[in-house]
Each structure stands twice: as structure tokens, then as C-alpha cells.
Design a protein that fits this description.
This protein is an alpha/beta fold and 452 residues long. 46% of the residues lie in helices and 13% in strands. The chain starts with a strand and ends in a 5-residue tail after the last helix.
């Protein structure tokens, strides 16, 4: 019987969800605060965590971080009434399996839980993040037909046969890991392991052990010797996603590993030879991180032998319809449904929406729509509220080069909000894009009650 840790400060909701899951064969332990939930996590074994975003003592993101530090492989699903896509993207970066908006659809949540636990079991069977024998056809759907997508495929074909390091830059959900896998599968190392490490999900305490391994007794919980991901990737490819999250100390050790092809386990006394091609990814421009002092310049230059930029989905409208149809077919298979297609109004919203969560967000939106569709056509009422309400054209493209001052007041707020989302609420970049100074931007944000 799978054991669920449920953390939510709404007793009525907890009772409803506990009753539903108990009837489906789950054992549920409910707690009304993050600290009590984390205390239970340290005392008992759980198969999955369901947590509300808004909790009385700390938010769900903080609970997620502490849970992952305690047990990195434990799946966490975040639930909230506040359908803020930036929170969703942040949660996914930090290791959440999924983000579910309230009011909860119980069947949808149950499906998401099963997928999360199956993914965990598969990961354990594959010895962590080592992936072997993955065919190109498994990922071919994401190649796209846009000019930028075709350019990326040219870069992949060019760089794959070499052994040089690659930096992949792009927003969360754009498919950076896919690009890394494609490079590996087209390389001379394709028969060897491809190891993916989400650096954003690693605490500073765990990162050294995860990457380089440790010897028995080197710290409190080191009961056995452990091989790090560098050793698991030996002969193959090591993909470090969200590398900018690594601490300066780990960056220094990574520099030595890439330069000298040697590592030393935590607590070890001897060097170990390793031979792994390094591919890294970040949703932050590493060159800017270097200038801010947040990323080592020497490591940046060591890794920056070749760079691939993955465009966000909003800049690839030619790919939106193709991706939507692919995810429709995929969702039909997974949910055992027979939805034929999309109503014209739904596709229009897909083309107008900014997709801040990119391809990952689109996949989740369509799976949800398929689940909620009783007939053979997906209608607007099955879409999340952000797609129904937000109908401004793809960010700034629809406004040309005219800037903020020439946009009507009715459209001004939407343009500001979407520009801020595009640049991750960097006010300097937003002001430059809108062709105003920072003071004017702040005044407009205050005028229209825009948070940030």
C-alpha cells in the first residue's frame, strides 16, 4: 500500500482527499503545517508528498527544498489555488514532479501520483539518472519545423561527433535535456551511459557527494562507499542541468574534473580517472552570471567551447500546432481517450498565449484538457484560466518596434506583465524592451497594481 504524506492547512480538504485516496488503496498521513510534515518525513518512510503551496509556517517551495535535501528521489506534487506559472516553473526547477491547481480534480491528481511513483521506481531500476539504449525516435517529436529548431539540429549534427564541451542556454521547459541527449545519441559515445543531473535539485551539502561520490564514514549518513555521477558517466556523457545553482566550492572541483579528468570522492585520499564528455545547461545566461560574480569565469571559459541557444516556444509559432497535435496523441495513449482534435478557438489561444513554461507547460495543459474533455474535441472550458484570460499576442512581437508609449491604455497593462514575465521580472531589461526608463516602469506597475 503506497504511503502518502499530505500537508495542507485545510482540514476539510485533507479529509476529502484522504478519503478518496484511501478508497483507491493508499495510506495517507495528513499534517496541517510544513514543520509537522517534515518531522513525520524524518520519522517514517513515504512514497510521495502532496503539499499545499500556502502553509501557515512556510510555503510549499521551502518544504520541497527540505524534503529533497532529506530524500532527493522522493516525488513531490505541489497543490495551490494560486495558479501562478512562475511558481510552477520554480517548483519544477527545484525538483517537484508536478504542479496541480486547486480545485483538485481527484482523478487527475491520482494519475499524476501514479506517474510520479512509476518514474521514481524506473529511476531506481536504472541506477539513478543513468540512461542507456534510448533511441532517437523517442525524442523526435520535439525537433520542430521552425527556423530556430532546424538550426539547433544543424548544430547538434556538427558538434555531436566531437568531444568538446557544450553549454545549452534556454528558458525552463524548452527542451535543453533533449538537445543534450541528441548530442549524446549522435556521438561516438552513444553506446555508453548518458547521465543527467539536475543541479537545481541538489543542496550544497549533497552536490559534492552526488557528483564525485564519497567514502564510508566521510559524513554522518555515509554508511557505504558511493560512486558519483562522474564515475557512472565514465565513457559516456554527463549532463549538468541548471549548473548555475552549484556553489563556488563545487564549481572549483568541477573545473579540476573537467581539466584534469580526475575526481576525488568526499573523504577520499586518492584521485580517480574519469572520462566523461561534459554538457551543461542553464536558464540563466552564464556570461552574465560571471559578470555578477555568481559563476567562476575560469569554469565558464572551460565549458564554453560551443554554445546552443534554445528559443522559447512563444518565438516558434510554427511549432506550436505540431507540438499540440503530438501531445494530444500522447495524452490519448496515456489516458486511454479518443479525443480527435482542438476547437478552432482553442488553437487560437495556443497561438496567442506566451507559454512561460514552454513545451513542458504545453504538455501538461493538453493532458489536463484531454482528461476533462467528454467528447471528441477539446474546448476552451477545459483550459487553465491563464490561457482563457490572457489573450494578448505573443509578447512584444505584436507591437512591432513602437514601444510602450504608443500602445493604448487598455493594452498597456498586458504588455507590461508579459514583458516582465519574458525577462523573469528583471526591471532593467523590461524597461529597455518597453523603451521607457526604470522610474516610468515602476510608476506604471504601481498604477496598474502589477506585483513584482
Amino acid at each position: 500500500m503506497p504511503k502518502v504524506l499530505l500537508v495542507d492547512d485545510d482540514p476539510t480538504f485533507c479529509l476529502m482527499l484522504k478519503t478518496f485516496l484511501s478508497n483507491k488503496g493508499y495510506e495517507v498521513k495528513e499534517y496541517f503545517s510544513a514543520n509537522n510534515g517534515l518531522r513525520a518525513l524524518r520519522e517514517e518512510q513515504f512514497d510521495i508528498i502532496l503539499t499545499d503551496y500556502r502553509l501557515p509556517d512556510k510555503d510549499g517551495i521551502e518544504l520541497l527544498k527540505e524534503a529533497k535535501a532529506f530524500n532527493q528521489s522522493l516525488p513531490v506534487i505541489l497543490m495551490t489555488r494560486y495558479t501562478d506559472i512562475r511558481t510552477a516553473v520554480n517548483a519544477m526547477k527545484l525538483g517537484a514532479h508536478e504542479y496541480v491547481a486547486k480545485p483538485i480534480n481527484p482523478d487527475e491528481l491520482l494519475l499524476t501520483m501514479k506517474q510520479a511513483m512509476n518514474k521514481q521506481k524506473k529511476g531506481e531500476a536504472d541506477t539513478g539518472n543513468v540512461n542507456k539504449g534510448v533511441g532517437l525516435s523517442d525524442f523526435s517529436f520535439i525537433q520542430g519545423q521552425s527556423l530556430s529548431a532546424r538550426q539547433i539540429m544543424k548544430y547538434i549534427d556538427l558538434v555531436a561527433p566531437t568531444d568538446i564541451a557544450v553549454i545549452i542556454h534556454g528558458e525552463s521547459g524548452t527542451g535543453k535535456e533533449y538537445v543534450a541527449r541528441m548530442i549524446h545519441l549522435k556521438s561516438l559515445r552513444s553506446s555508453k551511459p548518458f547521465v543527467a543531473v539536475d543541479c537545481g535539485a541538489l543542496s550544497s551539502e549533497l552536490a559534492g557527494s552526488e557528483l564525485f561520490g564519497h567514502v564510508k564514514g566521510s559524513f554522518t549518513d555515509a554508511h557505504l562507499d558511493k560512486e558519483g555521477q562522474f564515475q557512472l558517466a565514465n565513457g559516456g556523457t554527463l549532463f549538468l542541468d541548471e549548473i548555475a545553482n552549484l556553489s563556488y566550492e563545487i564549481q572549483l572541483k568541477l573545473l579540476r574534473a573537467t581539466q584534469e579528468k580526475k575526481i576525488r570522492r568526499i573523504g577520499g585520499t586518492r584521485d580517480i580517472d574519469v572520462d566523461a564528455r561534459i554538457i551543461v545547461a542553464s536558464n540563466e545566461d552564464l556570461a552574465q552570471a560571471v559578470r555578477r560574480g555568481a559563476f567562476r569565469e575560469d569554469l565558464y571559459h572551460r565549458l564554453n567551447e560551443f554554445r546552443i541557444d534554445v528559443a522559447p516556444l512563444r518565438e516558434r509559432p510554427e511549432d506550436i500546432i505540431m507540438f499540440a497535435n503530438h501531445f494530444l496523441e500522447q495524452s490519448n495513449r496515456e489516458l486511454n481517450r479518443k479525443v480527435i482534435g482542438f476547437h478552432e478557438s482553442v488553437m487560437q489561444r495556443f497561438l496567442e498565449y506566451a507559454w512561460p513554461g514552454n513545451i513542458r507547460e504545453m504538455k501538461n495543459v493538453i493532458k489536463r484538457a484531454v482528461l476533462l474533455t467528454p467528447g471528441d474535441t477539446i474546448l476552451v472550458d477545459t483550459l487553465p484560466s491563464e490561457l482563457v484570460i490572457n489573450r494578448t499576442s505573443n509578447f512584444i512581437q505584436g507591437f512591432g518596434d513602437s514601444g510602450l508609449r504608443s500602445i493604448s491604455e487598455a493594452s498597456e497593462r498586458s504588455l507590461i506583465v508579459q514583458t516582465l514575465e519574458k525577462v523573469h521580472y528583471n526591471k532593467t531589461k523590461a524597461a529597455a524592451s518597453l523603451k521607457v526608463d526604470r522610474k516610468t516602469l515602476y510608476n506604471k506597475m504601481k498604477q496598474y497594481n502589477i506585483p513584482g
